[in-house]
Structures are given as structure tokens and as C-alpha cells.
């Protein structure tokens, strides 16, 4: 089967969405399919504009690509990003090509919009921004398969968006194969680790407030901050009282090095309020960290106080309480570390591939 994949995200495996897209393509190829990957470098129009109006340029780029290429030679089409709504309309209603179309979402756009509105995190919009909700919903309703990366979004699509449940599926992402090949035995240290971007929706503001309390009360513990970039100024976010206990690692290029940093850490703190999946959480759990996490993405499937401490509300008090609980209760910390590791050991590309194959066979 010839499969066409059109992506709104760069085809870079080092980036979250690129990691998903490239490995999904590899799974399809392992099933014997021929895959044509088309990324933003082929779809983007007016590159001289940089990031200006990128979403609208992606919509136009996907539309133009759809019009100038022969789609009839493909047996299956996969889109990444609901920006494909015009392309979808052309395929289904103008060209009337009888090809199954799957939308593989790394984060349902309307799900993200709802969260941002509820939490008053909507950014100031430019004059050329307009509401695309009805077009995105058209896309969700008219693809043959809507595939999400977590049950949380699967439930949102069915319960909130009222998408036909027979066409909605979810397939949990997988850890890099490297994790199953080369996990070393490293002694745990009294380290609390966070890995990710420095964004308000990641819960970083209440996280810092909680750490200011914890690092003073428990001076034997330190905080390790990974992946916030070279521009991050630690002095802007932490007080002089605790700054000596904060280790800053702006970026980790090598996955083995990252695994070693996780394996040294007793606790992984990830109070994010919205994640499409949250792969860094799964990676840290596989490396034996007892995790504290927001109730979102993959974490929404975890059993609280068994596989992780799952926070219903993310604020200074809940984060502080969770940290104190794990610091003072080694039995609970070890139980969560062990059961969490068992839970994420299911996240293999082999299992992902089997589920993907079942979904495709169901719609062909």
C-alpha cells in the first residue's frame, strides 16, 4: 500500500512531533507499506515571512500541494494538523477520490483552545487571526479516522466534540528503543528533576513557589532543571536563598546522558496542566523516578499514589504536599518508582505498531 503523509510539523526526530511522525512512518514501512513523507519544507509558502501567519501559510501550502499532485496513486493518506481542512474538502468533495484519510493528532487544536480559554492564557491575536474552530471541527468530523495520542483527547473528541466514536481511536506513544536497550544501574541521589520548556501551562510558576519552600526545609535535596534553553536566567526565577541548590542544564543532546540524569534523580516533578502525551514523564518514570505530575495526557491514565502522584489541581500547596509526601515516605516513593516503571514499559514501538496496524486494517 502506498501511504502519503502530509505534516504541519518539521520532520526532525529530535522534536516531539517530529519524533512521532518519523517513527509512525517507520512502523508503516515495517508493515510493508511504501511511505511518502511531506513536511513543512515542501508545504510552506512565503518563507520570507518567518513565523508570521504560519498556520494560514500551512493551510494554503497543504491546499496547493493537494491540487498539483496526483493523489490517485496513493492508497491511504495521513494528515498531521487540522490545517488540512481545505485539502480534505478537495479530496472528498471536489476530486471525489475514494482514499481513506486519517488525521493523526499530536494535540487536538480545539482541546488546546478550550484549555487556554478556561485558564485565561489566550495570547493577544494579530489582526489577521480569526476563529478556525468550525473548520477544525469539519476536519475531525470528515476524516475517516481521528487518531489521538492519549485517552484524554480520545474522550474529549467523543464527549465534548461529539465526534462519531466509531472513527475515533487513541494510540499511546512509545519510548525510544534506546531506553529498552541501555538503562544502566545508577544509585539514586536526593535530586528533584524537571525537564521541559519554561511555560506557564507547564505549571512552572507554582512549581518554583513550592521549591522555594522545599529546598529550604529539606537542604539535603537539590533541584535539577533540564531543557529550558540557553537564554534561561536562573536568577530571575529563584531566590538567593535556594539558588545554590538549583542545577541548570539548558539542553541535553544525547539521550543516554539524559537517561543518566533521570536515573540519578529520586523524584521527577512535572506539574504540567496540558500535555498531548508527555513523553518526558514516561522517560523519567522508566528510569525509576517517582513522578509528580499534572492530570493530563498519558498521566491521566496513571493510578494516583500507585504509579505516580497525580495532581487534580496544580498550585503551590498541592506541589509542596506531594514533594513532602515522597521525601518523607521512602516506602511510597519506592512503590511509585517500581510500579511507574512497570507501567511505562508497555510503551514500545512494537505495541504502537500493532495498534496502528489494527486501526488501518479496520478502515481500508
Automatic annotation (TrEMBL):
Any one biological process term the GO annotation gives: lipopolysaccharide biosynthetic process
Stored CDD domains: GT4_PimA-like
Residue span(s) of domain Glycosyltransferase subfamily 4-like N-terminal: 16-168
SUPFAM superfamilies attached to this UniProt entry: UDP-Glycosyltransferase/glycogen phosphorylase (SSF53756)
Keywords: Transferase
Keyword Iron-sulfur: no
Domain Glycosyl transferase family, chain residue ranges per copy: 180-341
Statement: the UniProt record of this protein carries the keyword tRNA-binding: no
A Gene Ontology molecular function term of the record: glycosyltransferase activity
Listed name of the protein: Glycosyltransferase involved in cell wall bisynthesis
Source organism of this protein record: Flavobacterium urumqiense
Classification of source organism: Bacteria, Pseudomonadati, Bacteroidota, Flavobacteriia, Flavobacteriales
Amino acid at each position: 500500500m502506498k501511504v502519503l503523509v502530509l505534516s504541519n510539523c518539521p520532520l526532525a526526530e529530535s522534536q516531539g512531533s517530529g519524533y512521532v511522525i518519523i517513527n509512525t512512518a517507520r512502523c508503516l514501512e515495517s508493515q510493508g507499506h511504501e511511505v511518502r513523507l511531506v513536511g513543512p519544507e515542501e508545504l510552506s509558502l512565503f518563507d520570507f515571512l518567518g513565523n508570521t501567519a504560519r498556520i494560514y501559510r500551512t493551510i494554503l501550502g497543504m491546499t496547493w500541494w493537494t491540487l498539483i499532485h496526483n493523489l490517485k496513486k496513493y492508497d491511504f493518506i495521513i494528515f498531521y494538523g487540522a490545517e488540512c481542512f481545505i485539502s480534505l474538502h478537495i479530496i472528498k468533495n471536489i476530486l471525489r477520490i475514494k482514499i481513506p484519510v486519517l488525521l493523526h493528532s499530536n494535540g487536538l487544536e480545539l482541546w488546546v483552545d478550550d484549555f487556554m480559554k478556561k485558564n485565561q492564557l489566550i495570547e493577544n491575536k494579530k489582526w489577521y487571526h480569526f476563529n478556525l474552530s468550525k473548520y477544525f471541527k469539519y476536519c475531525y468530523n470528515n476524516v475517516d479516522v481521528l487518531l489521538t495520542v492519549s485517552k484524554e483527547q480520545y474522550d474529549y473528541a467523543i464527549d465534548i466534540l461529539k465526534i462519531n466514536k466509531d472513527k475515533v481511536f487513541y494510540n499511546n506513544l512509545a519510548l525510544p528503543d534506546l531506553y529498552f536497550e541501555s538503562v544502566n544501574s545508577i544509585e539514586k541521589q536526593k535530586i528533584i528533576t524537571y525537564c521541559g520548556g519554561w511555560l506557564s501551562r507547564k505549571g512552572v510558576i507554582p512549581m518554583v513557589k513550592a521549591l522555594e519552600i522545599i529546598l529550604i526545609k529539606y537542604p539535603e535535596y537539590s533541584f535539577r532543571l533540564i531543557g529550558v534553553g540557553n537564554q534561561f536566567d536562573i536568577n530571575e526565577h529563584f531566590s538567593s536563598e535556594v539558588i545554590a541548590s538549583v542545577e541548570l542544564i539548558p539542553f541535553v543532546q544525547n539521550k543516554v546522558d539524559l537517561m543518566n540524569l533521570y536515573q540519578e534523580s529520586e523524584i521527577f516533578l512535572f506539574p504540567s496542566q496540558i500535555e498531548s502525551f508527555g513523553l518526558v514523564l514516561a522517560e523519567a518514570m522508566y528510569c525509576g523516578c517517582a513522578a509528580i505530575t499534572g492530570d493530563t495526557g498519558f498521566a491521566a491514565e496513571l493510578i494516583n499514589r500507585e504509579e505516580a502522584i497525580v495532581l487534580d489541581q496544580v498550585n503551590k500547596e498541592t506541589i509542596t504536599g506531594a514533594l513532602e509526601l515522597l521525601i518523607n515516605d521512602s516506602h511510597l516513593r519506592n512503590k511509585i518508582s517500581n510500579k511507574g516503571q512497570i507501567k511505562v514499559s508497555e510503551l514500545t514501538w512494537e505495541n504502537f505498531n500493532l495498534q496502528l496496524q489494527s486501526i488501518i486494517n479496520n478502515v481500508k
